[in-house]
């Protein structure tokens, strides 16, 4: 019944359908950030993204779809930022590592080269 | 008496200002912050050169926020703009650092080849022993990408 009403209202341009795609996108973005270990590199952004995703899902259950869509969009962008920060942080760590190697005399290098971060 | 005569004028002024307010570009605090964030990033050469797509994405969201008639949507979109600008900055920093890392790797490989320390790894470092051992040319000056 609620679905029928929602459909009717959506057709009349008065309400929006559940933001299923936006919530799914946000969920994927959060999982990607987690897989990049954003927990240790950018914990604040990741936590924000998780909270927003959580609130978006709750808003979907409450049929507050506009609010759910806004929260899902915010969760997506916060998770993307967490991931972007991880990548830039890793690239900077690689530079710092290479610099340390340059400053180390060649004779001492052998023992340390195994610590080199993978370059991609 | 003068009060009575002024009244219609004041009423008219109020009506006109309310009407003007309704038509003027909206300027919520969130939208102002989003505009400023985008403006700053679009003037930052590191960002415009290294993350043009991410910046463009932020711009499109800003335009959407400006067009939106819903107060809550505007505020939410303005927030998204600010975060997208941050993403563009992070992307730019990543690219700058990656470029630097590639250069440092090349220089190290060359130095190793020339010093004969651990033997050449690539074909570019065949002139083994041609030069005395020294740190790679003093070009290692670029700092980690920070705006």
Overview of this protein structure:
The complex is a heterodimer of chains A (120) and B (147). Chain A has 120 residues and is an all-alpha fold. Helix content of chain A is 73%, strand content 0%. The N and C termini of chain A lie far apart (53 Å). Chain B is mainly alpha-helical. In chain B, 70% of the residues lie in helices and 0% in strands. In chain B, helix 2 runs antiparallel to helix 4 (52-67) and helix 4 packs antiparallel against helix 5 (71-115). Chains A and B meet through helix 5 of A and helix 5 of B.
State the assembly state of the protein chains.
heterodimer
The structural class of chain A is mainly alpha
Main beta sheet of chain B, described?
A: none
Q: What sequence of helices (H) and strands (E) makes up the elements of chain A?
A: HHHHH
Q: What amount of the residues of chain A lies in strands? A: under 5%
In which range does the helix fraction of chain A lie? over 70%
Please state the structural category of chain B: mainly alpha
How many helices of chain B does DSSP assign?
A: 5
Low-pLDDT sequence parts of chain B: 1-6, 16-24, 116-147
Per DSSP E runs of 2 or more residues, the count of β-strands of chain A stands at 0
Give the overall average pLDDT of chain B. 76
Helix content of chain B: over 70%
């Amino acid at each position: 019944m609620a679905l029928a009403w929602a459909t009717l209202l959506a057709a009349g341009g008065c309400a929006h359908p559940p933001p299923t795609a936006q919530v799914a996108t946000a969920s994927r973005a959060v999982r990607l950030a987690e897989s990049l270990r954003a927990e240790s590199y950018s914990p604040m952004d990741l936590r924000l993204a998780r909270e927003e995703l959580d609130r978006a899902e709750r808003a979907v259950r409450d049929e507050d779809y506009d609010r759910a869509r806004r929260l899902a969009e915010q969760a997506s962008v916060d998770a993307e930022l967490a991931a972007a920060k991880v990548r830039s942080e890793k690239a900077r760590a690689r530079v710092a590592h290479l610099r340390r190697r340059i400053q180390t005399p060649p004779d001492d290098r052998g023992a340390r080269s195994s610590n080199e971060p993978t370059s991609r | 008496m003068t009060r009575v005569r002024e009244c219609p004028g004041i009423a008219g002024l109020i009506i006109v200002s309310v009407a003007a307010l309704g038509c003027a570009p909206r300027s919520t605090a969130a939208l102002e912050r989003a505009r400023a964030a985008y403006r700053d990033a679009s003037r930052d050469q590191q960002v415009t050169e290294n993350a043009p797509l991410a910046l463009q994405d932020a711009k499109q969201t800003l335009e959407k926020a400006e067009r939106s008639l819903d107060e809550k949507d505007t505020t939410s979109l303005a927030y998204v703009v600010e975060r997208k600008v941050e993403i563009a900055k992070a992307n730019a920093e990543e690219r700058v650092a990656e470029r630097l890392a590639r250069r440092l790797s090349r220089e190290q490989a060359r130095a190793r080849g020339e010093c004969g320390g651990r033997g050449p790894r690539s074909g570019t470092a065949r002139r083994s022993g041609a030069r005395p051992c020294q740190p790679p040319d003093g070009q290692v000056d670029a700092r980690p990408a920070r705006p």
